[in-house]
Structure formats: structure tokens, C-alpha cells
Amino acid sequence: MSSSLTIAQAHERLKSKSLSAVELAQACIERIESVDKTLNAVMHRNFDRALEEAKKTDKQGKFDHPLAGIPYLAKDVFCEEGVPTTACSNMLRNPAADPSDRGGARDFVPPFDSTTTKRLKAQSAVSLGKTNTDEFTMGASTETSCFGVTRNPWDSSRVAGGSSGGSAAAVRADECLFALGTDTGGSIRQPASFCGCVGLKVTYGRTSRYGVLSMASSLDSIGALTKTVEDAAIVLGSIAGRDPLDATTGDEPVPDYTQALKKDVKGLKIGLPKEYFIKGMDPQVESAVREAAKVFTSLGAKIVDVSLPHSPYAIATYYVLVPSEVSSNMARYDGVRFGHTVPERDSLIEYYERVRSSGFGDEVKRRIMIGTYALSAGYYDAYYRQAQRVRTLIKHDFEKAFEQVDCLLSPVAPTPAFKIGAHTGDPVQMYLEDIFTAPVNLAGIPGLSIPCGFAKAKPSSEAPKGAKEDGLLPIGMQLLGPQWGEEVILRAGHAYEQATDWYTRKPSLGN
Questions:
Q1: Which of 2, 3, 75, 324 is flagged as catalytic?
Q2: Annotated catalytic residue: which of 114, 145, 187, 193?
Q3: Domains of the chain by start residue, with CATH
Q4: Which of 50, 85, 240, 493 has the fewest CB atoms within 10 Å of its CB?
Q5: If you ran DSSP here, which 8-state letter would residue 444 be given?
Q6: Percentages (nearest 5) of helix, strand, coil residues in the chain
Q7: Neighbours of 378 (CB within 10 A)
Q8: How far apart are CA 445 and CA 440, in angstroms?
Q9: Which among 104, 103, 116 is positioned nearest to 72, based on CA atoms?
């Protein structure tokens, strides 16, 4: 099945003409139609146009770039000309519509491309459509989507993670060769960990946010979910770089990230932050990450214990700053500038109230209210300003750590994928899923999630029949690098990947 190929493998076959772009796109389309009724990962399908793009690429016959002819999916917050983009929210679609109605006439359809999808289009990558996400990316399980939850490919009674759960599930289920995601507090890395694929969160400003619906503008970053570290390096090289349309992008030159993969890790100093191995985490997760540290030692790296003393304050800091920015960013969705409309009311205030009440889900409303409170007169200094100060302390912790080591190694999440509905009645417990990932966004540094083992779980009656790994759930580790340090974590991640086979294991899903 050609949809199971990596980007690097598919590129070689496309160049040699042993596989056509149309055949590759068709294989992914057939895979989506075969398994997505179980997963609910792909929301808006762009199949006819994808096949037309693939035909053009075949006709040109040029596969010089590794992404030429490669099918991908984008999280449903990336604007793409002519393709519905709804952030999986009723605010950008008809709230009265049946949830099974994907790409309806009332959906928001952008008249332009995000910088990321534009750059991929320039390399002749083939867009298949949009993946499921928590509403406006607010969540850690893809359960807040107006289209319903995305299910984990390993066990359909469990979440795929969030908010890029649809992208992670689609990659691991071979519905595409890679997928785009966004990471504000772990939204690429955590679902990659839960589904058993690779997820790269880049340095803030390494990739452009232009044309991507924002949640928290000072923390959002654009990245990819892939099948291998090599594929992550290929995609990053294509989408990274300065963008005049996004003032937050940096002027740092874009290196050839694939060249970093050729180096080994001998002499590399890898830090183990003691604050990331906490009471209450699943012992199987801790064991898997510590075993990964032993693999690095066997490859010639040196493991060093380090401390990030302000990490325990990261979640509290994050959930003051993020709702504050959400409160600001969501203000534009008022039914006048953006958002669906409702029948006219007696006053403009009543109109706003009805639009936002029917358009936004519970989690979005919760964050708007928390953020508005934190920014209000009398509370700004007590909450928002204090949170910004602690954010600076967290950033300094990482800077001091990187004076001692080249990169850091930690778990991605305290547990493997949890059951659907397990945290829906307890928002605080859901927020704690970000405990190991949120500090990275507060500091603005890069992080790479890689499969490093499996946890034993009781087989679910809803798990895919005949699954090769019944009762096993993926565990991910994350490698963290200094600002603009994507090369070092890709280098370390690739070395680990080549020394193990966790990344090669897949759920059967009827294969």
C-alpha cells in the first residue's frame, strides 16, 4: 500500500517513475474512505482537486523536490484557497447543520492561502483536505470539535490527543504521508505521542503563522506530524523561513535540516530535567523514557541531570496567558466581521450574544471568560502581569540548562492516551495533560516528539478487530533544544530512531 510510504521512500519511487503522483494520491484517498469512518480524522475533503494537482505534477514529470507529488492533510485552521476552513467550530459553519455535513454551503471558505500551504503548493505537494481539531485548537483530546471526537488508531475507545488529534491519527493510519498541525502548549507533540508518530514543534518564529486561525498569538507555532524524523526535517526545510506577512518570523537562515541527520550523537550532552519525572505519572511512561536515555548512552551521548525549577508553575502561568490571548483573538468572531449570523434581534448587544452563544462551544466560552477576567481592571496586575513575569523565569531556566547541555530529554505526557470522556467533566485534569509540553511554548524553544515504547492497557471491546498490538498504547518522548536549535533535536531524534524500531509499528485497522 503506497499510502504507508514515508516521504523519503515515496520521493524515490516518484523520481524513478515506479509510482505516479496520481497513484499515490488515489491510494491515500482510498485509505481515508476505508478507515476514516472509524477514526473521524478528516473533516473537509479536497479529493477531486487533489487528483487534478497530482495529474499536473505527473505531466510536468519533475520530482526534484522531495515534496513534489506528496499527499498531505492540514489541520482545520490553515487557510487554503477554495477549501472550507472552520476550526471545527459552529462559529464558522451553519450551527443548525448536521455534523455529518462536511464542507456545506455555509462553511467559511478562504479566498487565499496561508503562507505554509502556499509554500507547500510551490513545491507541488498535494493537499487532500483538512483534519479534525479541538474547536479553535482549544483542548487536549479533539473532543471539543463540532464534528465529534477523533479516535485513536490503536484503540478507538481512546482519544487521539489534541488539538492536532486529527492530523496525528491520519498520519499513523496512513491516510496521508504527512500532516500540518499547530502547537500552542503541546498540540503537535501530545497527539503524536498518543498515536505513535513524529511531531515537531519549532522555535517560535521559525515558521509563519500567516493565514492560520490563531488561539494565543505569542505561543502558537506551525509544525508537522510525520512518520519519521527524516520526513520532519524535509517538511520543515520547505515551510520555514522569514515571512514579510508575519512580523514574528525570525531572520535566521534556513539550513538544510536533512544534513543534520548525517551526524551521530557521540559526545552530545543530553539533560534529564528532574521536574519532568513526577509523582503520579504512569510508571510505564517513566520507564520508557529512562530506557531511551540508556539508548542514547549506548550511542555515545552523555546523560546529565539538570533542573528547571520554575516548571511546576508552568501550567498555572499558561492558563492565565492563553485565555487572556483567547479573549482578545476571539473578539473578532461577532457575526459582523467574522462568524455565522442569526436572525436580527432588538439590539446589537443581543445580536452579539446570540451569535457567540450559538457559535462557540463550552471550552471556548470558558477560556474567553477566564481571559477577560484576568485582563480586567483590578486583576491585570494580579494575574496577567504576574504570569508574564513567571514566563520569563521559565525561559531563563531553559537558557541556563542549555549552558550545560545540548538538548533535553523528557516525557511528552504523564500518561498514554486516555479514554474518550475521561476528562470532559474535569477541565483542570484536562489542562494537566500539558504539564510537560506547555513550558516549551512559554520559552519559545523547539521540541520533537518521537515514539519510544508502548504501555500495556486492558484490551478495549471497541479496539479495531485483529489489531497487531491489542492492549498496547504508544508512548512518546520529547527532545527539547535551544532557540533555533531544530538541527540538534532532529539529529538526536534520527539517531535514536535508527537504533530502535518503535516508529515502524502500526495499528492494523483492517490491513
A1: 75
A2: 187
A3: 2-319+385-504 (3.90.1300.10)
A4: 50
A5: T
A6: 40, 15, 45
A7: 7
A8: 6
A9: 116
End-to-end CA distance of the chain: 9
Report pTM: 0.95
Write out pLDDT tens, residues 312-369.
999 999 999 999 999 999 999 999 988 988 887 789 999 999 999 999 999 999 999 9
pLDDT, tens only, 202-252: 999 999 999 999 999 999 999 999 999 999 999 999 999 999 999 999 999
The answer to whether 214 and 434 have CB atoms below 8 angstroms apart is no
- Three-state secondary structure call for residue 480: strand
Q: What is the DSSP letter of 129?
A: E
434 close to 183: Cβ distance less than 8 angstroms: no
> CA-to-CA distance for 431 and 318, rounded, in angstroms?
10
Amino acid identity of 171? V
Q: What angle, 0 to 180 degrees and rounded to 10, lies between the N-to-C axes of helices 7-16 and 229-239? A: 80
394: cell is 521559565
Q: Using one digit for the tens of pLDDT, what is the confidence trace for 435-474?
A: 999 999 999 999 999 999 999 986 555 444 444 445 899 9
DSSP 8-state secondary structure symbol assigned to residue 347:
S
Place of cell 518521537: 450
Task: Return the amino acid letter for 264.
Answer: D
| Residue that the C-alpha cell 515504547 belongs to | 453
Q: What ranges make up the beta strands (E) of 317-446?
A: 407-411
Q: Is 163 a catalytic residue?
A: yes
The reply to whether 187 belongs to the active site is yes
Contact between 448 and 229 (Cβ < 8 Å): yes
Kindly indicate the confidence band of residue 66, based on its pLDDT and cuts at 50, 70 and 90: very high
What's the sign of the alpha-carbon dihedral 442, 146, 207, 500? positive
Please identify which of the residues 2, 141, 145, 163 carries the catalytic annotation: 163
